Amino acid sequence: MSNEFSRPIDDRYFDDYVVGSTYEFPERVQVTEAEIVAFGRSFDPQSFHVDPEAAADGPFHGLIASGWHTAGLMMRLYAKHYLSHVASLGGPGVDELRWLVPVRPGDQLRLRTTVLEARLSRSKPDRGLVRTRAELLNQDDAVVLRVEALNFLAVR
Amino acid sequence: MSNEFSRPIDDRYFDDYVVGSTYEFPERVQVTEAEIVAFGRSFDPQSFHVDPEAAADGPFHGLIASGWHTAGLMMRLYAKHYLSHVASLGGPGVDELRWLVPVRPGDQLRLRTTVLEARLSRSKPDRGLVRTRAELLNQDDAVVLRVEALNFLAVR
User: How far apart are CA B33 and CA A67, in angstroms?
Assistant: First the structure.
């Protein structure tokens, strides 16, 4: 298990994503009640995302972040630390996105990634597709989100 | 193909999600350049999501919404029109989320859902799991996002 890319993120290409490599990034993002409520109001206004009082009596016994908010926080770290800043050509999607543990106000989340697959495009030989398992861990080392993300990346 | 639930969203339970039913909701959400940039800065600051000038020379020939922003807009409509307002017990995740067509400033997006699967929980007989294909269509009737969403719902 390596924990350093061979290349910095400003000089990282398809070629640098090696199957089996795992990275864990030290930065932690903290999520506040105000952010959870604001995101919920914009995109996912279920009571357990937007109303702390109602949430206390709800299925999660308190306010929890929308799963899409948690996914956004994952993406923030993924874009900052893992995904090349020079070779990203967009992502066609993700598979098996799972919200495993509720994310609550004050939680501190960090990112772990594992390269599952890397294959050159047949139709466009200037790029390849990388499949990454991304996991978001909280301050108790519980995996709160797991997903397999797909990214197109330019070759060097 | 039905286009009306038998029950209003404030009286809708697991029992009302019938496999094979398809619904298309007339509300359209419009996404602006400012919203795309704001979401991108918070969660996905790749140049083609946050910098219109750089995006013009980028892989999508213009600014496009983060796929997570598009997913959030899907969820806004899904929570407003499709997902029960009284019986939702959270979602464990989604499968096969695909961003099929870029979403650009000014696009108008609407939701179509199809119930793929509905099964009672064995361990918790007060609820069931519903698997839904959700599609977001733009003003040209192109499917821009497709996903299979999982939701726990209380039985009536």
Answer: 24
- In the structure, what pLDDT confidence band is assigned to residue B4 with cuts at 50, 70 and 90? confident
Measured distance CA(A106)–CA(A35) in Å, rounded: 10
Sign of CA dihedral B49, B50, B53, B57: negative
Q: Distance (Å) from the C-alpha of residue B119 to the closest C-alpha of chain A?
A: 19
Could you tell me the CA-to-CA distances from B125 to A12, A50, B93, B121, B122 in Å, in that order? 50, 27, 20, 5, 6
Which pLDDT belongs to residue A3?
A: 65
Q: If we measure between CA atoms, which residue out of B35, B21, B23 comes closest to residue B137?
A: B23
8 Å CB contact of B97 and A92? no
pLDDT digits (tens, 9 = 90+) for B92-105: 999 999 999 999 99
Percent of chain A with pLDDT over 70: 98
Please state, rounded to an integer, the average pLDDT across all residues of chain B: 96
Cβ contact, residue pair A89, B45, below 8 Å: no
For A71, the closest of B46, B68, B76 (CB atoms) is: B68
DSSP-derived letter for residue B42 is H
